[in-house]
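Table S7 (text form). Paired inputs.
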Amino acid sequence: MSLTLTDVTLTYADGDARLTALDQVTLDVPRGSLTAVVGPSGSGKSSLLAVAATLITPDAGTVTVDGTTTTGMTRGDLTDLRRRKIGIVFQHPNLLPALSACEQLQVMAQIDGRSPARARTRALELLDAVGLAPQAERRPHQLSGGQRQRVNIARALMNDPTVLLVDEPTSALDHERGAAVVDLLTRLTHQQATATVLVTHDRAHLIGVDQIAEVHDGRLRPGPRPEQALRQACR
């Protein structure tokens, strides 16, 4: 398994009490597979993603990324782990306005110490993989919303992560573009052999995912099969 959460509990202060965001959550995501995590707003989806990304330390339980258990790691070690092992696709691309699509990716590799030539080669490979090779030199204002999200995905893959965490990538897209983004994530997951977690409220695009998990009140349970989720979403 490339990503494993075991009996993870996370609470937040709520006045004099504690609010439970995650309640003994266990999740295994193998390399080369995509797990969709669904649930209503406030159910714990975002908290689960933040814990998996090592951005928040849980109260109890363990997070294991590509064989490394994160318990007890320093902030510096966690930062290094994220840079080497975890790609994060945020809900909004937040691309730098002055940089081309290719340069958005090159910056990530240069932060990791790669040479500019190697960084550009890898960036062009990934832009080709997401269908944006002809747009490599375009800036964000010259791209559609779906294209900007594809750049966002390619950027998260720039440092060859083993774990890919994706937060609501279709929320600002129409149905057709949203479906295309999920199809792209499914294909790249298999091609790049990442352990991918897709957090979403939209069940209509999940026909191609490998498994679905549902979050309710901080508890995680197996969800319906992808084809069942599609039928439910279409009712």
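Next pair, protein 2 of 2.
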Amino acid sequence: MPEPQIKGPLQPGDRAPNVVLDAITRQGKVAIDDFRGRKPVLVGLFRGLHCPFCRRQITAMSQLEGALREKGIGSLTVVNTPIDRARLYFRYHPLPNLLAASDPERVSHRAFGLPNVEFNAAESDWPYKVSADAVMNMRIDMPGELPGPMNTMAAVEFLDKLDGYEFSEADRQMIATGEGQLVGEFLLDRDGIVRWSFTEVPEGGRYMFGVPAPQELMSAASQIAA
């Protein structure tokens, strides 16, 4: 049965759905409702760990975990990587106090309204379809990591080599089904209502592969802090 048409990411004022996932950095399950009624939470929904941009986005989010915790706000990182592969990655690349969950079926991404972009030969209808030419014409500029602006594929190759990332069969399966998955971060209040978000969807993908400005996120966090 085909999935319903995605209308777009959840917006401030929307109630976040409950999603139950396998925890990566601890045993058992983790759910959005674990936080509802208890404390606010920042939910980061990312592509698999095979994505070098997402590895950096996850690190950037984890660097704010302590400051958020001081305000009584939790953090939950969700990746599209299968559980065993994800646990292996974080064993060798630990991030302090990271609470992470595995979602290889991208259930949470769909629930929060993040599209999985379809790549095709010529047609673009952002954020649902994008042409190969549009992808190749995109330039990624990451001063300090890339030697200069690069197209997407060249940047991915460069960063993977820089990281020494070795692809597994699980990674290849995730790329085959979710290479175009858009990502985002959603700040929920203690009732599970979205109060702030940052996604790759707006303005034709202007924020692709980027991270939210820390001061913007922390300002939103201060407004809902316990």
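Residues 188 and 194 are 4 Å apart (CA to CA).
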